[in-house]
Amino acid sequence: MQQWTSLLAAIGLLTNGVGAQNMLRFACSQLVVDRVDPLVNPGMRYTPHLHQIVGGNSFNLTMTPVEYDLAKRSTCTSCSFVQDKSNYWTAVMFFRAKNGSYHRVPQVGNGGPQGKLINNGGLAIYYIPSGRTTAFAPGFRMLAGNAAETDDNKVNRGNICHRCWTSTNEDNFVGGAPCTGSDTVAIPQDTRCKMIRQTIIFPHCWDGRNLDSPDHKSHVAYGQGSGATGGGPCPSSHPVKLPQLMYEIMWNVTNFADRSIWPDSGPAFVYSMNLGGSAAHGDYLFGWEGNVLQRAMDNGCNLNRDCPAAGLTYQPPEKYNACTIKQQAPEPVDGWLKAMPMGEPALQA
Fold it and tell me: What is the model's pTM?
């Protein structure tokens, strides 16, 4: 846990302290792996690239802001807080083999300040407050990163990064706080990596008016500083400080360590856009019940524990792991594929 000292100090995570500033950190299992994207490509089946989606089971092809109330429409959530029916998704990582076939890289649970988080695929979600924090409003949505970006130098490493994990145990932490030290924008391409940790940190400043924008970005902004700190002061154009939302994904690359199956040229690990780490991105649709998230921020609710002051209830892994939905763009996504799922439905190799 010493490696987490800088992160814990930065966000004031003093679990036993009085008036300490805490954070929510919880597991979300895979709801579905699907080629749909109601934020960027509403109504489209077989969107340009594949996503892994977690959260409320009302996830659909089209989810009109405000009108489509995730909290009311969902009957379960694949996240460990019962009251969180939000949807969170990212691109999928693939291994590209020497023979031209592709294999989806599986995700595993995340270690961290409270030890292992149990999730069936999926990711870990953080809501990190800093000072006076205003929770997201119903209908709020946003996008972090650019799925078409090819230049690592145009990506802030303090907000989107990757880390080579040389241990097969995700609880055996490597390095310091997320997006610091030797972390890179690029996906590590090294057979010594047993895991690759991906971190996506969203903007934490809001214009206070718009729940979305045409590019799903302009209504929000990054404030001063970077990294998992809860966020610094906000610009005058976006004066409302939100909880800092962070995704953390552990890609288990252990089964792809045999160099003989790696391609002779080009990267072995790519995202489902057939691009590298510069194109990493995350999508978010707010779906918390009532004012639970605001109360959680106001009352210093911590990690993935029950928080009666906010009406926040933890559910065990057997509950959230059981919350899944069928693909709406059905195609094989596991095993060896002739090509990544792009364009026409994918075929097994």
Answer: 0.93
Domain count, the chain: 1
Q: Domain for residue 178, yes or no?
A: yes
pLDDT at 246: 97
pLDDT tens-place string over residues 316-347: 999 999 999 999 999 999 999 999 999 888 87
d(CA 161, CA 278): 9
Residue 142 lies in a domain: yes
State the residue range of the domain holding 153: 2-337
CA atoms within 13 A on the CB side of 167: 9
Rounded Cα distance, 165 and 112, in Å = 14
Residue 138: count of CB within 10 angstroms of its CB: 16
Q: Using alpha carbons only, how large is the chain's radius of gyration in Å?
A: 19
The alpha carbon dihedral of 260, 266, 267, 268 has a sign of negative
